[in-house]
Amino acid sequence: MIEAGIPPGLRLNSPELISAAQHLAVEEGVTNRVEFRVGDAQSLEDESEKYDAVIAHTVVSHVPDPIKVVSEAARVVKPGGLVTIFDGDYASLTFATGDHEFDAEMVQIILSLVVANSYIMRELPVILREAGLQIANFYSNVLAEVGVGHFFSNLAESYVPMVVKAQLIPEERAENWLNAFQQASSSESVFASCNYYTYIARRPV
User: What is the rounded distance in angstroms from the CA atom of residue 56 to the CA atom of residue 62?
Assistant: First the structure.
């Protein structure tokens, strides 16, 4: 698992995530059908043409070299197999507390911490073609909240302490922004949104 852009000391622990996944597999009764491994999506250890399908779920926006991820997915999928890529178009991420400049600044600070490429989902048509894949389908979704924040409140409350710990912004300034967003939610005046896209591509036979 790659945590590109996350400062030292704030990295997610891949073995812990694997442990959590294994626990969930036990709860769902599917342990005999799944295998979890820590690996680098940019350089897979698997042999070529091994899988019927490959899914990259919220991966390509976070790795240093998303082209390698797509190329590796194209390599390990069988001819006629599918490569599905889902991720956020984080260049569209928007928070609104009423201070447009400060909102835009905080979005960029948060993205600098957790996203390697905010525009990657807009570049995938070219990347997929160059990897030898053909787009079979495409889905777009807008995740937006107005009034009361839930998903985006959780995002803000999770990432603001991280950007402070990473010393990307003074604590008081970050807390002022978070408080403004929480107050907007309390007064049912929140607006926040982000676009999410899904590409389904096929490796030609």
Answer: 11
